[in-house]
Amino acid sequence: VQVVESGGGLVQPGGSLKLSCAASGFSIREYYMSWYRQAPGKEHELVAWISVTGDSTNYIDSVKGRFAISRDNAKNTVYLQMNSLKPEDTAVYYCHARTPGYWYWGRGTQVTVSA
User: Fold this and answer.
1) How far is residue 95's CA from residue 98's CA, in Å, rounded to a whole number?
2) Nearest Cα residue to 105 out of 34, 42, 40
3) Bridge partners of 11?
4) Of 5, 65, 92, 115, whose CB has the highest number of CB atoms within 10 Å?
5) What pLDDT, in 10s, does the model give residues 9-41?
6) Is 108 in contact with 45 (CB distance < 8 Å)?
7) How confident is the model at residue 110 (pLDDT cuts 50, 70, 90)?
8) Residues near 98 by Cβ (< 8 Å), separated by ≥ 6?
9) How far apart, in Å, are the Cα atoms of 85 and each of 24, 63, 88, 93, 112?
10) For residue 32, what pLDDT is reported?
11) Distances (CA, A) of 78 to 35, 40, 44, 102, 111
């Protein structure tokens, strides 16, 4: 049972990246899915969240209008489309799956926004 993030990398300010979170060993259909991030010297923070059905999403203020979380239950995958990236978005991004009594974390993918 695991979730594995991918899609991170180095991008210039104003650029875009799309992160993926692929789950294996369980179905995400009953799981709330989230993306967190942790920048150097800062606390872990929740970036975006999506409901089980995908009809409800939520974001922290600093990424609203720039990031979009989505899910494809058939592919057992969650995505985070990140546009208009800023240097302050630099962090390790983690995928989190949660359902009553169970939760899983990925190991993270590094996103670096720099000229």
Assistant:
1) 10
2) 34
3) 113
4) 5
5) 999 999 999 999 999 999 999 999 999 999 999
6) no
7) very high
8) 31, 32, 33, 34
9) 29, 9, 8, 14, 9
10) 97
11) 9, 25, 19, 17, 17
Answer whether 40's CB lies under 8 Å from 52's CB: no
pLDDT digits (tens, 9 = 90+) for 46-105: 999 999 999 999 999 999 999 999 999 999 999 999 999 999 999 999 999 999 999 999
Q: Are 60 and 37 in contact (CB under 8 A)?
A: no
Residue with tokens 């995505």: 79
d(CA 88, CA 111): 10
Residues in the chain: 115
Scan for tokens 């979009």, then name that residue.
Answer: 68
- Alpha-carbon Rg for the chain, nearest whole angstrom, is 13
Beta carbons within 10 angstroms of residue 111's beta carbon: 22
